[in-house]
Amino acid sequence: MSRPDVPAQPALNALLLPLLGRTLLLPSVALAELVNLLPVEPGGAAAPAWYLGAVRWRERRVPLLSFEAAATGGAPPALRRIAVLHALGGHGGLDFLALALQGLPRPCKVESDLAASGEVCAALELEAVTLAGESARIPDLPALERLLLDTGLWTEAAPPAFPADQRSLPRRGVGQAVDC
Predict the structure, then answer these.
(1) Region labeled Disordered — which residues (predicted)?
(2) Which is nearest to 150 in space by CA: 107, 89, 66?
(3) What is the pLDDT confidence band of residue 8, given thresholds at 50, 70 and 90?
(4) Which residue ranges make up each domain of the chain?
């Protein structure tokens, strides 16, 4: 029940990100861009299974992670789409991170009376909630960022550079013909 002297909180624009076996709920402002598949620079044999490697996005090298593998310790699923997210932890060399998705994000509105579902949360999940009859998980993105930095695969000082042969990819200029 709302009090007449307290203004109603506006609904938050959010996104439901489909993963394998779970759906993440994030504020829409966390998404920098949704992209189709990009070439992935593999993480290497010593990398944890959740670190899928790095992608080149807007002239940046961005770490590509499997949230469900990091949260549950399981094997990462096949890569279908990529969500590039704004990093939230304030770590110097990590401005963005990319999550592997299993489909297209769906927009939704989150009201202030969002209900906890009572489901058990995995590591890196702050809360399990029910939204429009669907279970969703609120991820702990700063903890995911810290996990990445703690592996030493990405440093706060500067992200590892792309190999020299990938630094200068050909660009199309305005008015240039494109062979299809």
Answers:
(1) 160-180
(2) 89
(3) low
(4) 12-167
Over the stretch 149-175, which tens digit does the pLDDT of each residue have?
998 888 755 555 555 544 444 333 333
Residue 12, token pair as written in the block: 């938050």
CB–CB of 46/64 below 8 Å? no
Length of the chain measured in residues: 180
pLDDT tens per residue across span 134-149: 899 999 999 999 999 9
- Residue 152 class from Cβ within 10 Å (0-12 exposed, 13-18 middle, 19+ buried)? exposed
* CA dist., res. 98 & res. 86, Å (int): 9
Question: In this structure, which CATH number among 3.40.50.720, 3.40.50.300, 3.30.240.20, 2.40.50.180 belongs to the domain 12-167?
Answer: 2.40.50.180
